[in-house]
Amino acid sequence: MSSEDHDVVIVGAGIAGLAAAWDLRDLDVVVVEATERPGGRIRSVERGPLWMNLGAHVYGGPESAVGRLLDETGVQATDVPGILTAVSYEGRLIANGPIELYPLRLPFSTSARLEFVKVGLKLRRLVAQYAKVARPVPGEDPAVLQQRMLDFMDDASFTDAIGRMSPEVDAFFRCTLTRGTGEPEEIAAGYGVGYFHLVWNKDDGLGRAIVGGPQRLLDALAAGQRDVRYSTRAVAVRRDGDRVLVDVEGPDGQRTLRAKSVVMSTPSHLTADLVEGLPADLEQALRAIVYGPTTAAAFLTDEEGPQPWDGIYGIATPKRSTSMLFNMANVVSEILPERPKGSSFMVYAPANLGRAIAGLSDEEVLDRFQADLEQVLPGVRGHVVERMIHRVDPGIPFPFVGRGRIQPTLMRPQERIHLAGDYLGSWYAETSAWTGAGAARRARAEVAS
Ligand SMILES: Cc1cc2nc3c(=O)[nH]c(=O)nc-3n(C[C@H](O)[C@H](O)[C@H](O)COP(=O)(O)OP(=O)(O)OC[C@H]3O[C@@H](n4cnc5c(N)ncnc54)[C@H](O)[C@@H]3O)c2cc1C
Question: Has residue 257 got a pLDDT over 70?
Answer without folding.
Answer: yes
